[in-house]
From TrEMBL, chain A:
Organism: Actinobacteria bacterium BACL2 MAG-121220-bin52
GO biological process terms on file: cytochrome complex assembly
GO cellular component, one term: membrane
Protein name per the record: ResB protein required for cytochrome c biosynthesis
Keywords on record: Cytochrome c-type biogenesis, Membrane, Transmembrane, Transmembrane helix
Subcellular location: Membrane
InterPro entries per the UniProt record, alphabetical: Cyt_c_bgen_Ccs1/CcsB/ResB, ResB-like_domain
Keyword Coiled coil attributed: no
Main localisation: membrane
Topology of this chain in the membrane: Multi-pass membrane protein
UniProtKB/TrEMBL annotation, chain B:
Membrane topology label: Multi-pass membrane protein
Source species of the chain: Actinobacteria bacterium BACL2 MAG-121001-bin67
Annotated TM spans: 12-30, 58-80, 92-109, 116-136, 148-178, 203-226, 241-260, 267-285
GO biological-process terms attached to the record: cytochrome complex assembly
Lineage: Bacteria, Bacillati, Actinomycetota, Actinomycetes, Actinomycetes incertae sedis
Official protein name in the record: C-type cytochrome biogenesis protein CcsB
Pfam family, one: Cytochrom_C_asm
Domain Cytochrome c assembly protein: 87-293
Cell location: Membrane
InterPro entries: Cyt_c_assembly, Cyt_c_biogenesis_CcsA, Cyt_c_biogenesis_CcsA/CcmC
Primary location class: membrane
GO CC terms, sorted: plasma membrane
């Protein structure tokens, strides 16, 4: 006799059974927890790209190796996706067959009493009659089935329903999350106070559409930023309130609406929401060449570096010959000490100061390589001046002059379309309901058998929740009281 | 009374609570030490419990008074800041200690928990001591991101879960300690007064099963709030990640118990690990971590 051949189908069936076993699901669940730890240890590209860049600067070789294992993109990495996809499959494979099984089970009568009741939970003997026990079980809404001299009763069928509801809702949550990343979009735009944001792809500083999101379907709303006010605590410099006043239009030809945006109160345009995410200052400057011709004029957004809004920025004037760049710092309330040099001591505009170092040469803006708007690559440039300006002052350098006219605040608007979030929310709510049902409903069986004029009573707590013995005790007591 | 008067009152009440918890702790220690000594001297297997019962009663009453003072301190802090006192790590700590103490007292109405008085009072002393010395910040308004009614819902459900997780951890810890004693031989006369291993096992499970839906709710309400404040409901911020890990560990714990039939030592260890992930999130991520949940005020 030869051993039965292990064909492909039976191998696949074996693997499927392994994958959908409760044990595998549990191991995958624990693995998912462990796998998410590195993402809280290493900086992640999606949250803090600057810190990732610092990591690469400090230890290029180590960072290269960490990057090979996706440790800067943990939650989008193949191994993390593998774990949650396997868990997802395992969940479906485990839950769906169980739902069918329990669905059939719900309409079935409770199984017959085991032959030896005294090995079951809460075993007791009572002198009451079988009829009275039946009446008690019926009164307490047990489902019963009677065979000869014994009764099988069961209660708490909803427990398994709750369990299934919980697991099925988790699948809904996962589908919602997946839906958002495929059909959604998110983008950011820096808008100076006084300017208008029109929702078209070119107006974004960065834009990440989902795989199946078409950029033509961006809703055509506009937002005019009228005023931004920030209030800070005088002692602690902590922010107390941010308020953004805007005038919006749902589409180009609809009427204007005045609205107020706060950190916890985003704007809503259909399924798209706009959030106030960050703020900073844009110094207003005018740059002239030596003939006095204006070569650049306008607000330049600077990037805040600390809570007092000390900011760095770059003013680039490619139209001058040679090209001119100003590597700059801006302090809304200028202060000085020996350790830090110049810094800002308060986030409001109490004593604004613009620090400039002037560079001439090639700004490399024509290479096609995307550049940071806050930085200048000065490798092929020469420094020709260094100065600090207060509002209204000018500084003349070799080939022209710069005037510091004033300051306007800017706000960072985050535009998010997240079509899956309702499903994720509904799924979460159903999950809690399912969880409550499955954790607090006791499913239990009680068996009663007449043996020699007495009743033997015992039971089984199907989800191991305590309380069955007390219940049987109460049953026996009440049967006795009825005499 | 002015706002700063309320703030000072709150601080004074914290010191009163500290002193009372210390007193309660000493009475519990006295009780424990005395019954141990009595055991050694008397030689026979019976203890004179009349003295230890009295000191336990004193300890419980003082514990109750301390908790009352702590509760008033939390309320006074809230009045001084004109909001729920959950705006920074100091406030979170004193409110957390209060939740733990109240959970201990309320659950103590149903189950006898007085044997847990000693470890509970030490834990509360540690939390309050750290809070008032290292984490203290003057009462101040909330930063704009926290100005939302979700603060009350999200943070208080998180803190209530934390208090009960800590309690279930204490029970699981007691289980493991007694389990070690029992494996070496019979329980000592002192340990005999403590509940059976089985009831400890059951109690820590029931606490987790009771609080797990609340913790799930805390995570979900956080997600709803994050959607309103930060433009995304889930962003793998370190604090979110660790809340998720805690959730997964407790989910595994419940699964392991209900479907895989884990009990006793293994289950107690898993319970301790899950609880530690909550504490890690609270201590490490708050103080040294980065991310958007940086409201500790440190």
């Amino acid at each position: 006799m030869s051993a039965p051949e292990l064909g492909t189908t039976s191998l696949l069936r074996y693997l499927w059974r392994q994958l959908t076993s409760m044990r595998t699901a549990l191991i995958l669940l624990l693995l998912l927890g462990i796998a998410s730890i590195p993402g809280s240890i290493f900086p992640q590209r999606t949250q803090s790209p600057l810190k990732v860049r610092e990591y690469f600067d400090d230890d290029p070789n180590g960072a290269k190796w960490l990057d090979r294992f996706y440790l800067f993109d943990v939650y989008g990495s193949p191994w993390f996706s593998a774990i949650y996809l396997l868990l997802f499959v395992s969940l479906v494979g485990c839950v769906l067959p169980r739902s069918f099984h329990y669905f059939k089970e719900i309409f079935k009568a409770p199984p017959e009493a085991p032959s030896l009741l005294n090995t079951m939970e809460g075993f007791q003997v009572s002198p009451a009659s079988l009829e009275r026990a039946e009446a008690w079980l019926k009164k307490n809404r047990f489902r019963i089935s009677k065979t000869g001299k014994s009764i099988a009763a069961e209660k708490g069928y909803l427990r398994e329903t709750g369990n299934l509801l919980f697991h099925l809702s988790l699948i809904v949550v996962l589908l919602g999350i997946a839906g958002s990343s495929v059909f959604g979009m998110r983008g950011e735009a820096i808008v100076n106070v006084g300017e208008r944001f029109i929702n078209t792809p070119t107006n974004y500083d960065n834009l990440t559409p989902g795989r199946l999101f078409s950029l033509e379907s961006l809703p055509t709303f506009t937002i005019r930023v009228n005023n931004f006010s920030a209030i800070y605590d005088r002692q602690t410099t902590q922010a107390l309130d941010y308020e953004l006043k805007v005038t919006t239009k749902d589409s180009l030809d609809s009427s204007e609406v005045n609205q107020i945006v706060k950190v916890n109160k985003p704007l809503t345009f259909g399924s798209t929401r706009v959030y106030l995410q960050a703020n900073g200052y844009s110094p207003l400057v005018t740059v002239r060449d030596s003939a006095g011709l204006v070569k650049f004029e306008g607000p330049v957004p600077f990037l805040p570096q600390d809570s007092n809004l000390s900011s760095i920025g770059a003013i680039k004037v490619p139209d001058m010959d040679p090209q001119i760049g100003f590597v700059s710092s801006f302090f809304p309330t200028a202060a000085r000490d020996e350790v830090r040099g110049g810094f800002s001591s308060f986030p409001e505009l109490l004593d604004p100061r613009l620090l400039l170092s002037v560079w001439k040469g090639d700004l490399k803006m024509d290479d096609g390589v995307p550049q940071s708007i806050y930085r200048i690559d000065t490798t092929d440039m020469e420094r020709i001046g260094l100065w600090a300006l207060s509002i209204g002052e000018s500084y003349s350098f070799e080939v022209g002059s710069i005037t510091f006219n004033g300051v306007v605040p800017w706000v960072n608007l985050q535009v998010v379309r997240d079509p899956g979030k309702q499903y994720a929310l509904i799924g979460s709510i159903l999950a809690i309901v399912g969880l409550l049902i499955s954790l607090f409903i006791r499913q239990r069986r009680i068996w009663v058998r007449e043996v020699g004029g007495n009743l033997e009573i015992a039971g089984l707590a199907l989800n191991k929740l305590p309380g069955l013995e007390d219940e049987i005790g109460k049953m026996i007591q009440e049967l006795g009281d009825q005499k | 009374m002015s706002q700063s008067d309320w703030a000072y009152l709150s601080n004074d009440l914290i010191y009163v609570a500290l002193a009372l918890y210390a007193l309660s702790f000493l009475s519990y220690t006295y009780e424990t030490a005395f019954s141990l000594r009595a055991n050694k001297i008397s030689g026979d297997k019976h203890l004179d419990r009349s003295i230890t019962t009295k000191s336990r009663k004193v300890a419980s009453i003082v514990f109750f008074l301390a908790t009352a003072s702590l509760t008033l301190a939390v309320i006074a802090r809230g009045i001084s800041a004109e909001r729920i006192p959950l705006g920074n790590m100091y406030e979170y700590s004193i409110t957390g200690a209060m939740t733990f103490a109240l959970a201990y007292l309320i659950i103590g109405l149903k189950y006898d928990l007085s044997w847990l008085g000693l470890p509970s009072s030490i834990l509360i002393l540690l939390i309050l001591g750290t809070a008032i010395t290292l984490l203290y910040r003057p009462s101040a308004p909330l930063v704009p991101a926290l100005q939302s009614s979700w603060l009350v819902i999200h943070v208080s459900s998180a803190i209530l879960s934390g208090g009960i997780f800590l309690l279930s951890n204490t029970v699981a810890g007691a289980y493991l300690w007694l389990d070690r004693i029992e494996r070496k031989g019979e329980r000592s006369e002192f340990a005999k007064r403590l509940p059976s291993l089985e009831s400890l096992d059951q109690l820590s499970y029931r606490l987790v099963a009771f609080v797990f839906p609340l913790w799930t709710f805390a995570v979900i309400s956080g997600a709803i709030w994050a959607e309103a404040a930060w433009g995304r409901y889930w962003g793998w911020d370190p604090k979110e990640t660790w809340a998720f890990i805690t959730w997964i560990l407790y989910a595994s714990y419940l699964h392991a118990r209900v479907t895989a039939g884990w009990k006793g030592r293994k289950a107690a260890w898993l319970c301790l690990i899950a609880g530690s992930s909550y504490l890690f999130n609270y201590v490490y991520i708050n103080v040294w971590g980065s991310g958007r949940h940086t409201y500790s005020g440190l």
